[in-house]
């Protein structure tokens, strides 16, 4: 029987939705309401938090959501305003039309209000439509200014609320403005406010060609790691696969960096199980994450740090494999 | 005034649809019927052919489509059965459920019947859901057998109809079974029927890490180039951008190979102008393609072939730039 | 104490060389002779085979190599003619100069003779300089014909020797002619001889966007898997890292496919430990491969095949993780 | 006859060297001395500047270099210390061995002295060996600190000399520390000195998944664009191909951004013509760059800016194609 003091686990509520894409335009399953999704999330063992897209599905009120969360034993960690729907398809902060920008601002302000009312940690800002598709499409100086100014206005208007920018290289735009850890930190410097930080997605960092562990360290060193989530992919796209199915070593390194920096937030899932059972996908993920947690406990950190001081990858990997693949020492 | 004898231009009818994706789940614009889309296509200058997804949108009959095409001055070049909707989301030919495979077969047979009735050139087979998402998900031997057997059954049951497989590395599956020119030709060898060939998409070849010109040559050498379409991307995804906006030289090389092989089919567009005016996107594309056509006329093919015999890229590029960028010799 | 009947392990002899690249033009260490390298290989625990580049380093004779191998307790599995040195920098089989092609043929014939004399399994043909660098540089039809004809001539002239083509997408050419599993099999069909097959490099398959397990199955199904080697990379380049340091699950799937097909050849390393201790790199690799071998023994293959019959990735991954990460079931 | 007031053109002197790589270990041609390379550069039409690797080849003195440059009608724009040779193969600034770091510092200080003596614009710092190869190899916090502190020490010790960091995602390290425009700017902020800036390489930006035009704007907005060079590639590697052979539109956008920001530095080449005539490669490049310069003159900038204000890619591309492909309006 486990005696481990595991971290809290969470998931984007969309983990329990059905999806649609440009080919399966009738969706991978029937549409589910926010409440339906919460009831699915309830069935996952060991899930404590969800990140909620906002607005909720039509006809669902905030009080209903609060009730459903309570009934499901779940808390809201973040609220994600849907600044990527049709009206923002040419951008939220960076939309060329000032009316669309104003609408995006309004929606994000509402999300901040929901954060207050529901007691969540942050508004998650994922500006997937902010960017460009073609060479020569935009004035890059102006685009970046719109992105930075928009975030500053939003965060400045809500100084009591945290805003966590989730960067990604691309999709749905061919190129997203907030595309990498470094660029996001550069923008945060330009914004100049304490309540703007980063939601670091493991898969987005991989897709961006980063070492997710390195990105975590860089963001932590500037005090901006407001949240994180995990998943997996083949490095060429944001596949949002179940965590641990491809990159075991790098997810281990990611959590190792969080541990040595004493980061003790929620371990969240951001996965899109298009064709899979959603509850089973979450359970398999958490089973794997618990293995990672225990492996961190077995890891000889002093020896690893000695190997890293020499930048000796063979010594480091031997130590890591001993912890991750317990039976390798047979 | 132009005296050029331009090729016929065509487009996938979806060029004139509105799109949806996993984020903009309310779509980039209102849904349009098959007839609406044909009426949009009519407005493009110099468009002669369309490739029609099948089934048509709800309530639209074949005779209505035929009438609309006639009214628009358009012909059908291909019929594309939608073997990537919800019921085939776990695969068409390679679905693990034999009932879903049978349904896919039925739908593709119907598409063959529409080809006959509408006088199109081929059924385009785009098995975007055939493949896998995770390591260890499938028995690769069995998956490939299902893919090949399914195509053989379909083509064998319709010996009077051509079937053009459109390969792509991935999307919506993380990995598609028919992923490259070479693998598709290998499968066609295994199928062993004359009425199975390739629909070569320029952007898919780029995305697959191929030289589209080389892929065209390889397919032509085996007598299997049943059709082609063009677009553009940044090589990392099937962006379906407007042709000529990124890869001018490689699209020129692609059409050069078609020309020296006397391939005289329709120059088709496969583009998804998510956020752009669809008619303007088509017009800009055709304007560019006409420039390519004229540049081929200006190209000193004998000199180019001499440079290629020496594999001299500098000499070759100089000749190519002289034709493509006319004013470079100022 | 281990009671496992492990496979034989091997390595490309270059694993024990020092390297050079376009920046560190003075090399990552002093040059080592063929004999020096064999003496290093001797120090690796559990190494039985080496693949030998040919010609040997200056002044080293075949009989000296044979003696050194015997002294080291090693056998030659393959001979790799260096058809990528300066004189072949514009191609071996596909060089535009027929004299260079003739020289390449001569060198490869010599390699075949060394295979006979040393009792190796095959000539490994790695035509890294065969291909192109620029759009429009080559006549693709002619390039492919040169590649195929050259291999046919070579194998036809040496019907008693096996020739294993090692494909890779690129490097040193921007694009290699033998770039993927499917294209190589297509070429082998065109060659039409039984003594031409494939040396499947795990990392090259990853780099080519393939599932290495799928590539193995495809090649096995045509009876052409003459050899294989392993390493690791980040999918974007042929990094030749130590096996198991990045892609644990996919290397496991690769060996799983070999096992269920009863492939019982040598498990070879093709690694370039530029900055690492070469012997330690080999030992760490073999330690990891033994873990894989034992994990295959623990794998519930019947349950996995049942999951694969349903194409259920969650069930499959659970079974796989149980075998690979033994302590995950705690 | 041309009446254009073209910019000055330059090239890294290595454009005229012969290369070596990990396969063609005997090199793509005989080694050439610094003086030999200058004499080759002299033969290029319209070349005014070179960037000189330091130390010069064995036996060549600074005064000989100065004489040769004068004789060739060339000036030095930058000095590039070779902090990527064997002794720095485990890193220059980030080497785990403090003695190696001290040696790197000494070499770069010498390069600063050469900049003063030869009247060049900057020391170009290209730390290609600073980074890591394996997950878990390094302590990311420490690695970044070494990189930043090393640059600060160097620039602080030479306040009269400019230092231009040339970032690249990778090669020869699997991952370089200074990997992108944004991260480099972040590091420059941390360094806090005015004499540290960026050498922006067009191909490195493409390889990093950036829009080179956007990167230029971002760096210009912070006043850090100390130099730039151009080439081309297929986005997946730093191929250092001849400029204009693949990405015509994006190189045009890059120079457009430089123009509207009134950046008036030298247009430099950073190309590795492994298998090509080096002088012809430079001439072809400059011919293309002059075309770009003239196309900028033809570009309807007011109309383009209006299109960009609407983020209308079709309007923008039409305007761009009119300028780049003059005869498209036929």
Describe the structure.
The structure is a homotetramer of 330-residue chains. Chain A is an alpha/beta fold and 330 residues long. Chain A is 43% helix and 13% strand. Chain A is built from 11 helices and 10 strands. Chain A is globular. Chain A starts with 8 loop residues before the first strand and ends in a 6-residue tail after the last helix. The model of chain A has no long low-confidence stretch (mean pLDDT 97). Chains in contact: A-B, A-C, A-D, B-C, B-D, C-D. At the A-D interface, helix 4, helix 5, helix 7, helix 8 and helix 10 of A face helix 4, helix 5, helix 7, helix 8 and helix 10 of D.
Specify the oligomeric state: homotetramer
Kindly name the structural category of chain A: alpha/beta
Level of helix content of chain A?
Answer: 40-55%
Stretches of chain A where pLDDT is under 50 for at least 5 consecutive residues are none
Main location (chains A, B, C, D): cytoplasm
Keywords (chains A, B, C, D): Carbohydrate metabolism, Cytoplasm, Isomerase, Manganese, Metal-binding
Organism (chains A, B, C, D): Winslowiella arboricola
Protein name (chains A, B, C, D): Sugar phosphate isomerase/epimerase
What is the gist of this entry?
The first copy, chain A, has 330 residues and is an alpha/beta fold. Helix content of chain A is 43%, strand content 13%.
Descriptors for this entry?
homotetramer; 330 residues; alpha/beta; eight-stranded parallel barrel; two-stranded antiparallel ribbon; 10 strands; 43% helix
Which secondary structure elements does this structure contain, and how are they paired or packed?
The structure is a homotetramer of 330-residue chains.
Chain A: E1 9-12, H1 34-42, E2 49-54, H2 62-72, E3 75-81, H3 98-118, E4 122-125, E5 131-132, H4 140-157, E6 163-165, E7 175-176, H5 181-191, E8 196-201, H6 202-207, H7 212-221, E9 225-230, H8 248-260, E10 267-269, H9 278-298, H10 301-309, H11 313-324
Parallel strand pairs in A: 1-2, 1-10, 2-3, 3-4, 4-6, 6-8, 8-9, 9-10
Antiparallel strand pairs in A: 5-7
Subcellular location (chains A, B, C, D): Cytoplasm
Domain Xylose isomerase-like TIM barrel (chains A, B, C, D): 62-290
Protein name (chains A, B, C, D): Sugar phosphate isomerase/epimerase
């Amino acid at each position: 029987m486990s005696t481990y003091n595991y971290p809290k686990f969470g998931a984007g509520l969309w983990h329990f939705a059905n999806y649609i894409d440009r080919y399966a335009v009738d969706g991978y399953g029937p549409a589910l309401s926010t409440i339906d999704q919460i009831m699915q999330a309830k069935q996952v063992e060991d899930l404590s938090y969800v990140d909620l897209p906002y607005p909720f599905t039509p006809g669902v009120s905030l009080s209903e959501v609060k009730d459903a969360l309570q009934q499901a034993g779940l808390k809201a960690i973040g609220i994600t305003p849907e600044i990527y729907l049709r009206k923002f398809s040419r951008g939220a902060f960076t939309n060329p039309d000032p009316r669309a920008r104003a609408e995006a601002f309004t929606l994000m302000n509402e999300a901040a209000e929901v954060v207050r009312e529901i007691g969540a940690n942050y508004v998650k800002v994922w500006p997937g439509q902010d960017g460009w598709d073609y060479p020569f499409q935009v004035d890059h100086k102006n685009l970046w200014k719109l992105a930075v100014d928009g975030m500053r206005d939003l965060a400045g208007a809500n100084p009591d609320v945290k805003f966590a920018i989730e960067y990604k290289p691309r999709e749905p735009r061919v190129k997203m403005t907030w595309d990498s850890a470094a660029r996001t930190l550069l923008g945060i410097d330009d914004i100049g406010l304490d309540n703007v930080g980063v939601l670091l997605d493991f898969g987005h960092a991989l897709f961006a060609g980063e070492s997710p562990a390195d990105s975590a360290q860089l963001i932590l060193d500037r005090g901006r790691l407001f949240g994180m989530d995990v998943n997996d992919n083949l490095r060429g796209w944001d596949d949002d696969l179940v965590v641990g199915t491809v990159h075991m070593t790098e997810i281990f390194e990611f959590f190792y960096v969080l541990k040595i920096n004493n980061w003790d937030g929620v371990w969240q899932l951001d996965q899109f199980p298009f064709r899979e059972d959603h509850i089973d996908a979450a359970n398999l993920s958490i089973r794997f994450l618990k293995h990672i947690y225990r492996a961190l406990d077995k890891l000889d950190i002093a020896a690893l740090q000695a190997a890293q001081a020499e930048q000796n990858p063979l010594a480091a990997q031997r130590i890591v494999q001993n912890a991750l693949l317990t039976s390798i020492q047979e």
